[in-house]
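Write out this protein's structure.
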Amino acid sequence: MQEGVPTDSVALEAIEKLGPREKWRIVKNIAVLGIAFMIHFTAFHGTSNLQSSLHNDGSLGAYTLACIYGSLILSNLFLPVLVIGLLGCKWTIVVSFVAYMPYITAQFYPSFATLIPSGLAVGFGGGPLWCAKCTYLSIIAEAFSIATRRKVRTDYLIVKFFSLFFVFYQLAQVLGNLISFTVLSYGETESVVNGTIESSVNISVTCGANYAAPIHQEAQSAIDLKRPEPEQLNLLTGIFLACMVAASVSVALGVDSLKRYNMVRKAPDNRASGINTLVITLRHLGHKYQLLLIPITAFIGIEQAFITADFTKSFVACGLGISYIGYAMISFGLANAVAAACTPYITKHLGRRLLILVTCLFHAALIVFMLLWTPTNEYYKYSIIVACWGLADGVWLIQINSLSGVLFPGNEEAAFSNFRLWEACGSVIMYSASSFFPTFHKLLFVLGVMIVGTIGYGTIELMEHRVKRLEPGKRFEVVDQEPQES
């Protein structure tokens, strides 16, 4: 038995003392947490999707996004265990939400002096935020499993709870982009005929995979991305700032502290702090599974950065205009939500290995299509492309995120810190490359990293297959938490 973790009988007795409706209370916590993240990231995604197009001068938007994920790397290395140890998961989420607010406020006065520092604040809040969320979901999944007397396996519950959470979370893309499109397109006089949008740009030559990086854009510097009016942008920023305030209040008032479930898994007495957080995170890299997960984790950050910065600018803004970014990205959010809802059930019937293989082939085919596709001014085609990308992204996100929780029980902080670390590294690489490489080359890079990452994941499955041959009842290698040095 892992040190600090009670037996099933002790934990079951403790949970039963909380009352027969405790299972529904756990579901309520997941729902409130998911809704709060949905409201919060409605604002964040709705704003971030516009950055590379709105602030294209000097690549300010892309550099701001790179700063967000660059500071997220440092945040993941130094802050999660320390902040969670001081505040607990619930209040870590609340405080981290507040750290995002200056970024939204800076949109009223966008410049290097306002966006870069506020972007850094987002990154420093993001590390503790996502580690706290992942730890919270993993522990209450274990509590729910005990409350049902192990009628449902904990590893399956973790996937299901992550799925339920991400249904809410991915709807943020829908709401954020719906608000963005509604506000920015209001009063627009641009004509739409038979599903096409009039444009003075030679879309088939200039946009899509042919879109050149800013440093090679001498011929493209005159492209009009049809910037919205300042009044529209300020209204949009005010709405998004109100969303973030509402999200913080929702978690503070509506989510139970994990102290309620201390009987399920007690935290070690000697919490890590300061430089020890970095040591714990890096020490976790000593496990072979964690090393093999790095490429596929980085790929998730890379492909999300591509769709946020490069697709929105080189495909949508170039071909249709900035106001249509929200319209196209609504499809991404809807597809993400569908993937989040369906992934656990598809996994149950197809198995994790087959689903990830199918997703890899599907995503690879989509990238090849985007490399060869000649862009048009038919706006629905952009929505179809980004919807397909959203389906694949939803599967990647849930499967790899939940796998980190399943493989490393008791080491959630270190495991999820590594997940966010390498995901952020992938995002920084992609955002930084946005100003220097053509979209064609970036699509090839996304494809290559995905293939390498899938091979790494497949190696884990192969190693697990060998373990099960020796120990038929064992599904995963459980990594016991090492005692910390005093």
